[in-house]
Q: What sequence folds into this?
């Protein structure tokens, strides 16, 4: 018999979903059969699939060790160099400075990504120990955008951070260098349509089917020749929003080969430099008001 004690990383989910993650090679019919035959119990009693797990619950598997091993796929972490810089860390979250050239999530175009690097870092600290939860990033940056990304170390911080971002309680500020002179504050409110095939977006002025609202605020900091440095805040967090929005008004970001000058040999100058956290509850209230910075001079470049 195998007994599993539920931690704060596993609580809050249905028993059948937990079992599907734990026995990740088993199909759903096997899971339900084991529950029906009482080969799986919760706190020593018969359990229903929809029962929501609580911290310190005990899940008992009355299965042979060989059967459990058969239905568990052991995943090994891909060994990789660490390219990010830690800006803030505690028991619940990690905020890092992502370099230019590093993908946030695993994708087909890159062998290296921030998610794998963060999991490897936490695993080395023995903070990546969970039956079903893996540390995850809560916000994304384009591959050639540098700056601050929040990673959740446990389920509660992941759930609350995602909710805070969705409800716009986390303020995200960027620094960008754009072509042309801008001498007044900008408040851009338009709509965005994504072309999945080209991995590009288009800004349109009127709402149409499949379009999503985009709101971008820009404040000029200083001019430099025929360029302007901007502080940017986004109220909506769409893919390529800042880059496409500024390009749509004739001020593409320096070095942006997708929405700006295709033949530019310069690096894209867009940096997520400040996060102000809010919207947390319960044991994570201490994060409310936390301000984390990574100045443009702190930009990192993947080598």
A:
């Amino acid at each position: 018999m195998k007994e599993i004690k539920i931690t704060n990383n596993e609580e809050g989910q249905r028993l059948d979903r937990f079992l599907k993650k734990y026995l990740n090679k088993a199909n759903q019919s096997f899971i339900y059969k084991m529950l029906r035959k009482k080969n799986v119990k919760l706190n020593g009693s018969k359990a229903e699939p929809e029962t929501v797990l609580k911290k310190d619950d005990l899940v008992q598997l009355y299965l042979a060790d060989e059967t459990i091993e058969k239905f568990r796929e052991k995943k090994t972490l891909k060994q990789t160099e660490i390219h990010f810089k830690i800006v803030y860390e505690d028991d619940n979250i990690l905020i890092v400075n992502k370099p230019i050239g590093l993908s946030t999530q695993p994708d087909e175009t890159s062998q290296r990504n921030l998610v794998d690097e963060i999991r490897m870092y936490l695993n080395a600290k023995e903070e990546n120990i969970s039956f079903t939860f893996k540390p995850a990033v809560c916000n994304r940056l384009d591959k050639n955008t540098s700056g601050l990304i929040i990673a959740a170390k446990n389920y509660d911080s992941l759930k609350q951070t995602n909710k805070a971002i969705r409800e716009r309680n986390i303020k995200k500020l960027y620094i960008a260098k754009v072509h042309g002179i801008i001498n007044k504050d900008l408040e851009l409110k338009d709509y965005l349509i994504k072309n999945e095939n080209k991995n590009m977006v288009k800004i349109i002025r009127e709402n149409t089917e499949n379009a999503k609202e985009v709101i971008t605020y820009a404040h000029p900091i200083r001019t430099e020749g025929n360029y302007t440095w901007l502080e940017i805040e986004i109220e909506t967090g769409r893919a390529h929003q800042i880059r496409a929005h500024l390009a749509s008004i004739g001020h593409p970001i320096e070095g942006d080969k997708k929405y700006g000058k295709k033949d530019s040999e310069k690096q894209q100058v867009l940096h997520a430099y400040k996060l102000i956290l809010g919207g947390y509850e319960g044991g994570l209230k201490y994060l409310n008001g936390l301000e984390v910075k990574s100045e443009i001079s702190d930009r990192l470049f993947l080598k």
